[in-house]
Amino acid sequence: MELVEERYWEQDPDFLRRNPAGKVPVLRLDGIIMSESAAICEYIEETRPEASLLPSDPVQRLEVRRLVSWFDDKFHHEVTSKLLYERVNKKVTKQGYPDSKNVKAGAKAIKYHLDYMTWLLDHRRWLAGDVMTLADFAAAAHLSSLDYISDVDWNRSDVVKDWYAKIKSRPAFRSILADQVPGFPPPRQYNNLDF
């Protein structure tokens, strides 16, 4: 599989043909062009069950889906859009300067979310239960983008810090950590547990 950088903010006609919503990710797999991360993950889960990221138990699947929604909706709205979009997206898309009210709101909200993650991880090995699931990857994707701009206080929770170290040490997560945003310095590189 080849990873292609897509500058979705440039509204390239070829990209918009593949995904009229103008959003990433877009995946070409099995001759199909797919968009929307949840739909892509479900497709991969259904067509490649040998590395399952959704438990077979319906109650456990519900919890995974609930947490994926938590991070992709609630966390995104309260934290990612307030910090990453204000500090990075506005600069990249030349839409002005960060709104300090949004940045302050995001900085406050991330504390609540890290505390919730701490509570979950105090009761479970992974966010949704005893095995790593899509919920862990959804959360890690958001935190990775915020870590890129140094907006995660890893000292707030040792259990979340250890969880993130386990996720980011996985080979599948390495390419995300190597991403670089145009006009920004390269991401800080860590050795598994060295923050």
From TrEMBL:
Pfam families, per database record: GST_C_3, GST_N_2
Span of domain GST N-terminal: 1-52
Domain named GST C-terminal: residues: 57-189
Signal sequence range: none
Domain of life (superkingdom): Bacteria
CDD domains in the cross-refs: GST_C_family
SUPFAM superfamilies according to UniProt: GST C-terminal domain-like (SSF47616), Thioredoxin-like (SSF52833)
InterPro entries: Glutathione-S-Trfase_C-like, Glutathione-S-Trfase_C_sf, Glutathione_S-Trfase, Glutathione_S-Trfase_N, GST_C, Thioredoxin-like_sf
Gene3D superfamilies according to UniProt: 1.20.1050.10, Glutaredoxin
PANTHER family (UniProt xref): GLUTATHIONE S TRANSFERASE D10, ISOFORM A-RELATED
Subunit structure, as described in the record: Homodimer.
Protein name: Glutathione S-transferase domain protein
Lineage of the organism: Bacteria, Pseudomonadati, Pseudomonadota, Alphaproteobacteria, Rhodobacterales
